[in-house]
Amino acid sequence: MTERNPFWTYCLICIALVLLFLNLGTRPLFGVEGRWAEGAREMILRDSWFVPTINFHPHITKPLLPFWLIKISEKMGTFNELFARIPGAILAFLSFLSIFLVSRKLFTKPFDLFSSFIFLTSWGFISFARLSQSEIFQLFGIIISLTVYLISTESTSFLRYLLFWLGLAWGGLSKGHTAFATGIFPVLFDIVINKRFYHFNRKNLLAFVIALAIYILPFVGTAIELKSSLPFSILIRENLQQAIRPYDNVRPFYIYFYYWPAWLAPWCIFLPLSLWWGIKNFGTLDGKVRFLLIANIVIFCTFALAKARRSYYILPILPYSTLLIAAYLENNWNEILKKLCKFLSILLFVGLSISPLFIWFYLSSYYSVPHVVIIANLIVVIIGGILFFMKDRLGFFKMALYVALMEVLFFCFLQPYLSTRSQKEIALLAKECLNSMETKEPRLCVYKGLVANVYFYLDIRNAVPVYNSIDLALRECDLILGGKRSLMSALPEGRLVCREGLGGRKAYCFVVKDGCKIVKEGYGWTGE
Question: pTM for this one?
Fold first, then answer.
């Protein structure tokens, strides 16, 4: 097992590029992506670096780093989904490369590649890597700190300390206090257990102070631009108070027993084995493997004990779990695990082979499946058939390739092309309607608020007034946009243009005065 076939290294890098970047801009904005994309877009329009806005109202509850990187990307390109997501995808690729490099330091061949495959194809990593959200920005900073610590555990150089703290500052400026908890707590336990008290020195303190100053500076900039101390109050509220006395995101403590393995899927089958092996052999473990075991337990307990809980809060545990699983496989690889991997490869091949039936006979009854998805499905099945006859004496690589093929099919084709487009469609229709009006400057209004995704597609250049009274809105506005439920309850007999997703999800409508050429009598719409 000491030989490394360069084929697998090149294959791994190619899979990473495909998974992270193929059709990255095809999927409409999902979830809270618009918060970051629209906030960055309005920062460009307002020429601001410290106060993101949504509908040109300050939105300063989130750290600035993702806004900055997305702003730079959108400024270099254009206002669309691709340029909003490119910064996160690039950071995801750099995160993957960091895991790849640290795995080469920790593990023998070929288990270093095992680790990289597991991290790259874990469900949580690839899900957030293709979104314009702060989670992947934070994960990058945590992985940088983790890489520095594992590669130079004994080092007391100033540069080493500075890189460690800067990584955590990056994570903090991306998501908040969870980055610091994820990076600091495991290291403190490791220092105490292994008596590495020599790390409490002046160089470490100086590096910490520099990183802390860099972390605080954006909040100072926001306070200066707003001429208010509010950013510092929000910093305390969103970090310290939210963990102890949360005002939202209150979930039961046991949700992480589900989401920890869920974000690791499909490799979560090895997680219980890895934890049990580590605990059972704690005294004889290599120091770095012991640190990984401690880190997994400490991070899980930290997030479970915190009062505010969301499914994705525990995402930073991924690199620690990935490396622990790789360590388990390296120390326990035997014929049983080989046969398990080969058996799972057969199951994955069968699932891949019947995927056309699922797409053609099930999905096509709910969606209009584009030809590109069908062609991609057939290509993936053909590649899977070729892999079936490939020799893999370890069994792992073939299984990993089947996982990657299924994820390429889902994340690069099914998800982008079949996602709900109602938010984008209603915004584009509203813009078309406004442009077709004979009024010189038609007035756009919003009834009871909109999500940031819709504002992004509206491409607004000034604040859109929001009304809570439909009667007042009808008197003062030429087009009123809002949620379908709100407008239907306020205007049961009105002329509405509506778009909605499958099952009525993400349903939005607008009502217009005379002059919009795309609106006919009744509900719904038709082009002229």
Answer: 0.93
DSSP SS3 for 170: helix
Contacts for 356 with CB less than 8 Å, ≥ 6 apart? 374, 377, 378, 381
DSSP secondary-structure letter at 136? H
Q: At what angle do helices 81-106 and 65-76 cross, to 10 degrees?
A: 120
Tens digits of per-residue pLDDT, 226-274? 888 777 777 666 666 655 666 566 778 789 999 999 999 999 999 999 9
**What's the rounded Cα separation, in Å, for the pair 19 and 226?**
40
- Rounded to whole angstroms, the Cα distance separating 308 from 46 reads 34
Q: Is the peptide bond before 110 cis (omega within 30 degrees of 0)?
A: yes
Q: Which two tokens stand for residue 94?
A: 């750099």
Q: What is the 3-state secondary structure of 463-523?
A: CCCEECCHHHHHHHCCEEEEEHHHHHHHCCCCCEEEECCHHHCCCEEEEECCCCCCCCCCC
* Amino acid of residue 269: I
pLDDT in tens, 91-146: 999 999 999 999 999 998 889 999 999 999 999 999 999 999 999 999 999 999 99
Strand partners, 510: 481, 497
Reference 482, options 409, 423, 436; nearest CA is: 423
